[in-house]
User: Which sequence fits this backbone?
């Protein structure tokens, strides 16, 4: 019997708690250059690497596999023909999804196809037995790259889809927009090392694994110049 969105939401929230208390699992992260964590981190850890340190190191889940399947320049639609290679072949227990920075280059008229692609990623991930976490893309600043208002519209679509499908949501866009001028950007589009720490922190909070005794959660980086 098909589950309602509310039933999916309760089930997936419960599954996350069970996963973090249970036997080893595989986490697959898909997205674009923000998830891949290239260039703009300038040698510092990406949010996926911070996640691996928190879960496999500090929480003692040493046998968990954390797979970074992010690809710079990718859109949500790009994943569909590559889903087996990027996701399914790893037999994931959890799939986290963050796209939008490149998708938004299609402008407001691209929102519909973006939503469709994300919907398909969620459904295909569930079909292989994975619990899904959707993440909104962080905001962008005026300058090079997509229009900030367009990125905001794409983030709103992620929220809407998460509500409609009962998917666990990490809302980076709302968090960063409220913080306004925090030094989290390596350029107008990409988070720097400090920004990746912030992305990781939001993920930890949503999963209930933030901790005062955590070196990862307490980490603070020296100022990192943009560029």
Assistant:
């Amino acid at each position: 019997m098909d589950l309602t969105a509310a039933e999916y939401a309760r089930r997936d929230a419960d599954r996350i708690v069970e996963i973090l208390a249970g036997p080893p699992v595989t986490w697959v992260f898909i997205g674009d250059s923000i998830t891949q964590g290239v260039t703009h981190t300038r040698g510092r850890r990406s949010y996926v690497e911070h996640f691996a340190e928190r879960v496999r190191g500090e929480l003692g889940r040493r046998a968990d596999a954390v797979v970074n399947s992010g690809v710079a320049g990718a859109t949500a639609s790009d994943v569909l023909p590559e889903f087996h290679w990027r996701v399914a072949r790893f037999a994931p227990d959890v799939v986290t999804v963050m796209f939008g920075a490149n998708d938004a280059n299609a402008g407001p008229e691209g929102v519909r196809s973006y939503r469709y692609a994300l919907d398909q990623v969620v459904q295909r991930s569930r079909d292989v037995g994975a619990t899904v976490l959707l993440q909104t893309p962080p905001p962008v600043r005026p300058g090079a790259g997509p229009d900030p208002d367009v990125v905001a519209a794409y983030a709103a679509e992620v929220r809407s889809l998460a509500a409609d499908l009962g998917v666990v949501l990490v809302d980076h866009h709302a968090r960063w927009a409220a913080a306004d001028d925090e030094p989290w950007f390596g350029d107008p589009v990409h988070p720097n090392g400090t920004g990746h720490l912030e992305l990781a922190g939001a993920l930890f909070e949503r999963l209930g694994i933030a901790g005062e005794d955590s070196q990862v959660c307490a980490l603070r980086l020296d100022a990192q110049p943009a560029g």
